[in-house]
Every structure is written in structure tokens, then in C-alpha cells.
Amino acid sequence: MPLEPTISLLQTPASWPNPQPLEARATFPENFPGFDGHFPGHPILPGFAQIQLALDILHRAFPSLGILQEIPSAKFSRPIHPNEPITLTLQSTPSGLIHVTLTTAAQPASTFDLLLSPPKTQP
């Protein structure tokens, strides 16, 4: 059984930043190491794993994007459990932030903003 989440890109804009959102779906298996100890008997996906998932999806769609510099805001409002389908919406903003929403069971589970370093340039 895989230890990594299953990820599917649903909608990918032609370029980034773009007013069109990047959308993806993901599921974390029961044996994902991030569930270990968080919390015994009632595993939930840690916030760091949710943020890393968003970064992985961004870099899968746009490999030249820069690295994470700051998380100006984050709100984790609903637990995400093993094998629970997650829909991610990543939206570029005029201020340069990337607004991320993770939804499960048609309810927002978390929202956060990411600030990346300038895109990598090819030599």
C-alpha cells in the first residue's frame, strides 16, 4: 500500500499567476506517516502536511515556481481523516499571494495563504 497521497490535477491554468484557479484532488492513505502520533486512535492530517500538499501540487503544475518564503495566514477549521477525499483550490491574488482552500465533504477544512520566492530562472 502506498505511503504517499494520491493526487489528481483537475484544472490547470496555462500559466501562473493566472486568474483561473488551479484545482486538484487528493487522498492520504491510512498508513501515511504524518498520521503517526497525530493523534493515536483518532488520526488527523497535520497542518504541515496540508501546506506541503499545496506546495507539491503547485510545483507539479508549474515546476519553475519559487520556494516557500512565508505563510502569512492559516486557519485549520475541520479535521481531515485518512482516506477522506480532499479538493484543493489554489488561486493567485493581485498581491502575489497564493490563496489555498482545502475542502472535504463539501465543507472548508483549511485555508491559508502562501508567499513564494520569485520564480526560478533558466540560465
What does this protein look like?
- By secondary structure, the chain is mostly beta strands.
- It has one domain: Roll (Thiol Ester Dehydrase, Chain A), CATH 3.10.129.
- It is built from one helix and six strands, in the order ββαββββ.
- It has one helix spanning 47-61, and strands at 6-11, 22-27, 68-76, 86-92, 98-104, 107-116.
- The protein has a six-stranded antiparallel beta sheet with strand order 1-2-4-5-6-3, with helices on one face.
- A hairpin with a 5-residue loop joins β4 and β5 (98-104).
- The protein is globular, with a radius of gyration of 15 Å.
Low-confidence stretches: none
CATH architecture: Roll
Distance between the termini: 40 Å
CATH topology: Thiol Ester Dehydrase, Chain A
Instruction: Give me the side-by-side strand order of the main sheet.
Output: 1-2-4-5-6-3
Strand content: 35-45%
**Domain unit count:** 1
Global mean pLDDT: 93
The helix fraction, in percent, is 10-25%
Largest sheet: 6 strands, antiparallel
Beta-strand segment tally? 6
State the name of the first-level CATH class.
Alpha Beta
Order of helices and strands: EEHEEEE
- What is the CATH superfamily? Hotdog Thioesterase
Q: Indicate the radius of gyration in whole angstroms.
A: 15 Å
SS class: mainly beta
Overall form: globular
Number of helices: 1
List the quaternary state of the chains.
Answer: single chain
Note the main attributes of this structure.
123 residues; mainly beta; Thiol Ester Dehydrase, Chain A; six-stranded antiparallel β-sheet; 1 helix; 6 strands; 37% strand; globular
